[in-house]
Amino acid sequence: MSEISDTTMMLAVDLDGTLLNSDMLLETFWNAASKDWGSAIKAVRSLSKGKAALKAELTDASDVDVTTLPYNSDVLDYIASWKSGGGKVALVTATNQSLADQIAAHLGVFDAVHGSSDSINLKGPNKAEFLAKTYGDVGFAYMGDTDADLPVWQAATKIVTVNAHKALRIKAESLGKDITHLGRDTVDIKPYLKALRPHQWVKNILVFVPIFLAHQLDMATLFLGIMAFMAFSLIASSVYVINDLLDLDADRAHPRKCQRPFAAGSVPMRHGTGMAAGLLGAGAVLSLLVGPVFLLVLALYFAATTGYSFYFKRRMVIDICVLSGLYTMRIIAGGVAAGVVISVWLLAFSVFFFFALAAIKRQGELVDNAKAGKLAPSGRGYRVDDLAIVSQMSIASGYVSVMVLALYINSPSVSLLYANPPVLWGICLVLLFWLSWVAMVTHRGEMHDDPIVYAVKDRISRVCGFLIVGFVLLASIAV
Q1: Is the distance from CB of 12 to CB of 88 less than 8 angstroms?
Q2: Residue 238 has what pLDDT?
Q3: Largest Cα–Cα distance of the chain, in whole Å?
Q4: Which of 31, 162, 286, 391 lies 20 to 30 Å from 269, alpha-carbon distance?
Q5: Computed from CA positions of residues 298, 299, 301, 302, in that sequence, does the dihedral angle turn out positive or negative?
Q6: Residues 211, 338: contact at Cβ < 8 Å?
Q7: Which of 240, 200, 255, 236 minimizes the C-alpha distance to 365?
Q8: Higher model confidence: residue 339 or residue 432?
Q9: Hey, where are the domains in the chain?
Q10: Where are the alpha helices (DSSP H) in 316-458?
């Protein structure tokens, strides 16, 4: 980092992508959409009056918590170094003036704040003209990150790039001015993969359940199951991306979820919007290859998950019912994809069993909030004093699912599929143990955000899974 000896020079700092590892236009849009989708759409309509008007409308429709935004520590360190040498710093951003003022007040490091008004978008040539007029007599250094900043750098005395790609760095260097590069010039792919939540794809194995239970293990049927699994994974990842964009404030306030790529700012929000659309399109194409009925089921799944992200997850009990239904829809989709008739027993078991797991998920959140001293989880319809009831819901529903399984084992249809049905009673014992075990783990605050993901990683849960598979195999062998 080069030193600046002329302390009369103003350091002008951009916000989006520079000081902030995010984009305030998208922050305000998704924040507004998370609270009232209609208000977000209404704000977008104001784009006909110009981008500045859009930003003003979204600012009014949202309430972004500026204290939890992902600020760039390298930029803050540079600002601190600049000020320690006697220099002054201004925040100059295309973000609406109101939000810029809030951010500046929170950080407390700026000597001046300049943002967009309702009619002027302070970006590109507009920003260059403003800075030249305001600070041109003493000169100014400018920190930016995109090609839109090139006109500003042209007018600046000193250039500071932040996480600029190689091509932009070359363009900035060609201006022949004092220049400093901060951050990396390459893209780290890991946060993008993390945003897809591939570990959550384990849930989509449920599409194989109807196939295995019907004992239709021929290659053609298994291939359809694999296609269904891949389609569900793509659609699910698109929903995870949308959900993360809607849940930014809540995730940033959470001890673990704050590390999610969009909340932490490791993946630009504009990329997230494109990722969601691309994943959804790819999943739809793959679903159509499986069959039109499967595509319809997946469309209903997407509609339900989107409804959950925008509305249902904030409604107590309803959110648990919807989550349970989403798990069951995976089983239904597997049956549709493979052409397997799903029994009423399987549907009844899945509804109660997954209701229990969904309640455990909420119970885990409440336990975390109780430990943190929060009265209510952000963005949810529960309070900490609901913990006992939610716990009872999970245990009761889990035990009822085991009872349904026990009744199924005694039904006439089982003898047609298994040579030794009494062995299946071992599954009931294992499930009773596992559900009780998970209830205790959650009560102690040791549950992962999702109980199914926890089960995959937990050694005892894996042993229970192997035992269940073992009982199924033994029941299939004639004695």
Answers
A1: no
A2: 94
A3: 95
A4: 286
A5: positive
A6: yes
A7: 255
A8: 432
A9: 10-182, 197-342, 347-479
A10: 318-338, 344-372, 387-409, 412-417, 425-443, 451-457
How far apart are alpha carbons 95 and 117 in whole angstroms?
9
pLDDT score at 479: 52
**Is residue 1 over pLDDT 50?**
no
Question: Would you say the C-alpha torsion 386, 387, 391, 397 has a positive or negative sign?
Answer: positive
CATH superfamily of 197-342: UbiA prenyltransferase (1.10.357.140)
DSSP 16: B
Per mean pLDDT, which of 148-157, 209-218, 246-255, 338-347 is the most reliable? Answer: 148-157
Q: State the pLDDT confidence band at 375, using cuts at 50, 70 and 90.
A: low
Q: Which residues pair with 16 in a beta bridge?
A: 20
Are 310 and 246 contacting, i.e. CB atoms less than 8 angstroms apart?
yes
- The whole-chain average pLDDT of the chain stands at 89
Question: Are 401 and 352 contacting, i.e. CB atoms less than 8 angstroms apart?
Answer: yes
- Pairing, β 178-182 against β 112-116: unpaired
Task: Report residue 147 CA to chain centroid gap.
Answer: 28
Q: Give residue-wise pLDDT tens across range 17-64.
A: 999 999 999 999 999 988 887 878 888 888 888 888 888 889 888 989
Cα–Cα distances in angstroms (integers) from residue 444 to residues 360, 447, 451, in the given order? 12, 8, 14
Judge whether 338 and 209 are in contact, CB under 8 Å.
no
CA dihedral 249, 250, 251, 252 (to 10 degrees): 50
The pLDDT tens digits of the residues spanning 65-120 come to: 999 999 999 999 999 999 988 899 999 999 999 999 999 999 999 999 999 988 88
Tokens representing 203?
Answer: 């849930």
Report the SS3 class of residue 144: strand
Q: Tokens for 148?
A: 């839109």
Q: Tell me the CATH number for domain 10-182.
A: 3.40.50.1000
Q: What are phi and psi of 85, to 5 degrees?
A: -90, 5
Count of all residues that appear for the chain in the document:
479
pLDDT at 14: 96
